[in-house]
Amino acid sequence: MRLWSLHPSLLDRAALVAGWREALLAQKVLAGGTTGYTRHPQLTRFRAHPEPLAAIGAYLVGLREEATARGYRFDATRILQPGDPSALCASAPIPVTTGQLEYELAHLRRKCEERSPQWLEHLPGPGDVPDAHPLLTAVPGDVEDWEVR
Predict the structure, then answer these.
(1) What sign does the dihedral 32-51-66-144 (CA atoms) show?
(2) Positive or negative CA dihedral for 14, 16, 19, 23?
(3) Nearest to residue 99, comparing CAs of 135, 143, 40?
(4) How many helices (H) and strands (E) does the chain have?
(5) Fewest CB atoms within 10 A around its CB: which of 7, 11, 45, 50?
(6) What is the CA radius of gyration of the chain?
């Protein structure tokens, strides 16, 4: 499961579509709808939020907004608690370290080199701190403890 911390506009088609699918699975886990993936480390930040389902809902909304802008059709009815990611971030931000964002950008860059090299021109350069998903607030720090390397 990869719940990208990167802004959805940075994700290539494959990462955006997979991110949507995996975030729907995360939502199901957080809603108690499955016994699988319950200990997945990337769920830590959503569980720590005062309203985990609202947080994953806002995360999904951010992905859906980007997909819609690109002409894709992600089904909004699948989001249990849709909300404005920027508004939720303002009221109860979820921090993400700059080290995590840089790590994910490098990971995405490697993926794009193989599957969509033309997308590389859309990405910030190596060493640049990329924008975070609108739900998240970037803070200084190394790669997150929950990241599996």
Answers:
(1) negative
(2) negative
(3) 143
(4) 5, 2
(5) 50
(6) 14
